[in-house]
Design a protein that fits this description.
Length: 309
């Protein structure tokens, strides 16, 4: 009788083992770290590659109050406050990134110095002699505002001067000399319609390197747009940079950053078309055309060919 009881208990215990194993397995699955979904991993990767401000190397420099239009883009007689800031931005990716930068000037709006809070950054120069640069340009930047509000970040650290502009309020003083909170956002739908050697291409964000080369070349001319005689020679590269629909120039979502025709003799014709009925001729540094052709070669032929719009 006693032996039969022991056999029965042993059988019941053996019957519980599969259930216990299943319970332990379920607990292990609950306690083990879950792998992130593919979407979350992609978001983390993109966040790691996103540009960020190097705060210890960036600073607010100064501000001035000027009468009338700052960039020559309108005829308003309102006083404007122009803030000068030096920004260092790290680009962890391996490509040139087109971005926009805004500053939160809420503290200055609350103190009455300006009447707007969120201000757009305008690229000014990489030079460190800011006061002399401002005198040379006589209150204007080197290119149209629609071009300069696009910041081009090379791979690695990028350090440059920017200006923020806002209507003047009732106060003439700033409460502190701190750099305002900075936000960096990718430029949406940036691209370029390009014609070279009789072939027309539509490029996407990868064309940011071409735009960077053009703007760097203009920066090296040491003058915004010297008017010189037309000296176009040889083949040329025609580039129209924009963000938004590249054909519908009347679209509200369209932003043009200018048209460049760079010739093999490094002569350039620049136009802020279609919104400005004017253009400039000027000489670019030697080798600009070759640098553009080399950049195009590196981009390869993985592009969409379209008829010239």
């Amino acid at each position: 009788m006693e032996n039969e009881k022991r056999k029965g208990n042993r059988g019941r215990l053996l019957g519980l083992i599969p259930a216990l194993l299943l319970a332990a397995l379920a607990a292990g699955l609950l306690l083990s770290p879950k792998s992130a979904p593919d979407g979350e991993l992609a978001d983390r990767t993109a966040e790691a590659a996103a540009p960020y401000l190097v705060e210890e190397e960036s600073f607010f420099s100064d501000f001035v109050i000027q009468k009338g239009a700052v960039y020559g883009a309108d005829d308003t007689e309102l006083d404007r406050v122009i803030f000068f800031c030096y920004l260092c931005v790290q680009n962890p990716s391996t490509e040139t990134l087109p971005v926009s930068i805004t500053g939160d000037f809420s503290a200055d709006a609350e103190s009455g110095l300006v009447t707007e809070r969120e201000l757009q950054a305008f690229f000014l120069t990489k030079e460190t002699d800011l006061e002399e640069h401002w005198k040379k340009t006589e209150g204007t930047v080197r290119m149209m505002p629609m071009v300069n509000d696009l910041i081009l970040l090379e791979p690695g650290e990028n350090c440059f001067w920017v200006t923020f502009c806002a209507p003047h309020g009732e106060s003439d003083s700033r409460q502190n000399r701190l750099l305002p909170p900075i936000r960096i956002a990718p430029a949406e739908d940036f691209g370029c319609v390009l014609t070279v050697n009789g072939k027309t291409l539509v490029l996407g964000p990868e064309s940011a390197e071409l735009f960077r080369l053009c703007r760097a070349a203009i920066e090296e001319t040491r003058s915004p747009f010297p008017r010189i005689r037309d000296n176009r020679q040889g083949p040329y590269i025609w580039m129209s940079f924009r963000a938004g629909e590249h054909i519908d120039v009347t679209s509200d979502s369209n932003r043009y950053f200018g048209d460049f025709a760079v010739y093999s003799n490094d002569f350039c014709n620049y136009s802020a078309a279609p919104y400005y009925n004017s253009s400039w001729n000027f000489e670019l540094p030697a080798g600009t055309y070759d640098a553009l052709m080399e950049a195009l070669t590196e981009l390869g032929e993985d592009t969409e060919t379209l008829p010239l719009p």
